[in-house]
Specification:
The chain has 248 residues and is an alpha/beta fold. It has a single domain, classed as Rossmann fold (3-Layer(aba) Sandwich). It has 7 helices and 8 strands. Strands 3-2-1-4-5-6-7-8 form an 8-stranded mixed sheet, with helices on both faces. A hairpin with a 2-residue loop joins strand 7 and strand 8. Helix 3 runs parallel beside helix 4 and helix 4 packs parallel to helix 6. The model has no long low-confidence stretch (mean pLDDT 95).
Length: 248
């Protein structure tokens, strides 16, 4: 693990994103807490500052070209480079409604809606592309920056094909697409010194799943922080959980 100077975490006003921001700030980073809701984002950043951490709210809607461009300009006006970008913002519309009494996901792909899938892809797939592209000049200005795509076990085609995970078409396929995007960016940026990896934090108790997950945000943030603080020359273009590489 290496200390960071400047880091941005998207979708960080609660859940795994908030804990990731806390952990990065705890090791000495200046952290921008990206959130589209001003009230929630400012309150989350203020709570972390009350813990003595250097955290600032950054208005950031990952679905908006205008918002992302403005956010990049805001950070560029304050610092010359960005050492880590954590693309954490994610949604799963319809997931909670599809949970049965025992907590298992019961909605079949034939009942998922195109509207929900479009919304999911806009945040989970196009959002990370939009943010990474906009912040690339700042990432390139750092000596060895890191980009972490927060994926999911549900993004693994190998697991899906072997019935090891719920059959969640919209959310799962969005994370599969994100894994592919991770590889694409890694192929381009690794020669330029930027490490790009995907993290699977596990089924964590958050608003995304009505807190049905069996892991804590503290556990979930571990692999994200590890990938965001890799030493120069670390792995790139990979898909990891806390125990190591995962099957695509």
């Amino acid at each position: 693990m290496t200390a960071l100077k400047n880091a941005l975490v998207t979708g960080a006003n609660k859940g795994i994103g908030l804990e990731t921001a806390r952990r990065l700030a705890t090791i000495g980073s200046k952290v921008w807490l990206g959130a589209r809701d001003a009230t929630r984002g400012a309150a989350a950043a203020a709570a972390l500052r009350a813990e003595g951490l250097d955290v600032e709210w950054l208005e950031l809607d990952v679905t908006s070209d205008v918002s992302v461009a403005a956010a990049a300009k805001t950070i560029a006006a304050q610092v010359p480079s960005l050492d880590a970008l954590v693309n954490n913002a994610g949604i799963a519309p319809g997931y909670v409604d599809g949970l049965g009494p025992d907590g298992r996901y019961e909605r079949p792909p034939s009942r998922e809606t195109i509207a929900d899938m479009k919304a999911t892809y806009d945040v989970n797939v196009f959002g990370p592309v939009r943010v990474t592209q906009s912040f690339l000049p700042l990432l390139l200005a750092a000596p060895a920056s890191r980009v972490v795509m927060v994926s999911s076990f549900l993004g693994s085609l190998a697991r899906a094909a072997s019935d090891q995970s719920p059959n969640v078409m919209g959310y799962g396929s969005s994370k599969t697409a994100l894994n592919s995007i991770t590889i694409a960016f890694a192929r381009e940026l690794s020669p330029l010194g930027i490490m790009v990896n995907a993290a699977a934090p596990g089924y964590t108790a958050t608003d995304l799943n009505a807190h049905r997950g069996g892991r804590t945000v503290q556990q979930a943030a571990g692999i994200i922080v590890r990938l965001a603080t890799l030493e120069a020359g670390g792995p790139t273009g990979g898909y990891f959980d806390e125990n190591g590489p995962l099957p695509w």
